[in-house]
Write a structure and sequence with these properties.
alpha/beta, about 25% helix
């Protein structure tokens, strides 16, 4: 176990490679994908995306303040399509579609809480594993193309057999966001009939691009950034930092990872930041939500999550809620990120594996309460229309 933290740090340092590679498929033949394997789907046995919603509210310093159980929408009118980040601990360069504990944990941490608002569909895909990222020369274009094709084919499968005209919220993080950037650009943005079904896209920790000073352009030509809570068919995107990002930050600037994504055109673009608690701009308190159970013990990401610094009191509910931070989009040094500041008594969160990554590991949970409130309102408006 003494090598765990060092191995975890080396693996996470290379995660950007796997995430960035997900968008570098232009001109690469796409092989046929095997049938969809669902990590989460309505009616699925042992579904990690349908947990209990009981929640313990804690103070910024970690003391319990009471419990609550959010109301779950009966017969929701929308679905959530979730693509998970790099988590696979399989020893091969590319993961199979086998469902391992780390996929179940990441689905619980990042997607399951949306079950109060939507039916969740989450496909397994043959991503580049953490082990594979340590051997980048062994990663082929076909492997990268296969990763994307799995998600694309799963989305087409979902549209054909499950969607039935329902609204869709896309949810992704890190490698999942890079995959969804391409999927939405090709399968949604250019297809008006599908685009009308998009309620929103929550694309976290993945450098979504827009034209400089604009809310559209870059990755998508029709789909705009969310600037109002009443808006539909829009994008929320951010990467979290609690300090001024260094000049070589791997998130928040359009040029980051360019050597890894040679076909990506970043000219005239910038990375999008939208504050989910204040879509119109400015600073606002953030509502953090995260599971009370540890992330898959014995895994690389499991080891890293114990080092971030979020309070983990011993409680009986499945979820923890806290308001320990305020957040505002920052463009210091031309690097666009969600910069958070702790309220008095807030924990000091640790940038992992170093300052260039910021608080990448908490992107999906630092404002999860705000994202769920946004989706709740969007679902109501979509149903009304």
């Amino acid at each position: 176990m003494s090598h765990g933290p060092r191995r975890a740090r080396r693996a996470l340092l290379t995660t950007l490679a796997g995430a960035a590679c997900a968008v570098a498929f232009a001109g690469v033949p796409t092989p046929a994908s095997a049938s969809t394997t669902w990590l989460c789907k309505p009616g699925l046995a042992k579904n990690p995306c349908t947990p209990g919603l009981g929640t313990t509210v804690i103070s910024p310093t970690g003391e319990t303040q009471g419990t609550l159980t959010p109301k779950k929408t009966k017969n929701p009118k929308i679905d959530c399509f979730y693509v998970y980040p790099t988590v696979s601990d399989q020893k091969t360069i590319q993961a199979t579609k086998r469902i391992d504990p780390e996929q179940r944990s990441i689905a619980l941490y990042q997607a399951a809480r949306y079950s109060s608002e939507c039916r969740i569909y989450a496909p397994m895909y043959r991503q580049i594993t953490l082990a594979g990222l340590l051997k980048p020369d062994a990663v082929t274009a076909k492997m990268r193309s296969t990763s994307y094709a799995d998600v694309r084919d799963a989305f087409r499968d979902y549209l054909e057999h499950d969607n039935k005209g329902r609204g869709i919220v896309f949810v992704g993080h890190s490698q999942g966001t890079f995959v969804l950037r391409q999927l939405i650009a090709k399968e949604v943005d250019t297809k008006p009939a599908v685009r009308k079904r998009m309620v929103s896209a929550l694309l976290l920790g993945g450098n979504v691009l827009v034209k400089k000073g604009k809310a559209v352009g870059g990755d998508f030509q029709h789909i705009k950034a969310c600037t109002s809570a009443t808006q539909l068919g829009c994008v929320v995107a951010f990467s979290t930092f609690n300090d001024t990002p260094p000049a070589n930050a791997v998130f928040g600037q359009a040029g980051a990872g360019r050597s890894l994504v040679p076909n990506q055109n970043t000219k005239g673009t910038e990375v999008l930041c939208t504050n989910p608690a204040a879509l119109g701009g400015g600073s606002a308190p953030l509502t953090s939500l995260y599971p009370s159970t540890p992330f898959a013990p014995g895994t690389i990401i499991g080891a890293l999550t114990t080092q971030v610094g979020l309070p983990t009191p011993v409680i009986s509910t499945p979820w923890i809620e806290a308001q320990a931070f305020t957040g505002a989009c920052s463009a210091e040094g031309g690097i666009h990120v969600l910069k958070i500041t702790g309220v008095p008594g807030a924990p000091a969160l640790k940038a992992l594996p170093d300052a260039t990554w910021g608080l990448h590991l908490v992107d999906a949970n630092i404002a999860l309460g705000d994202l769920i409130r946004l989706v709740h309102g969007q679902a109501a408006r979509y149903a009304a229309h």
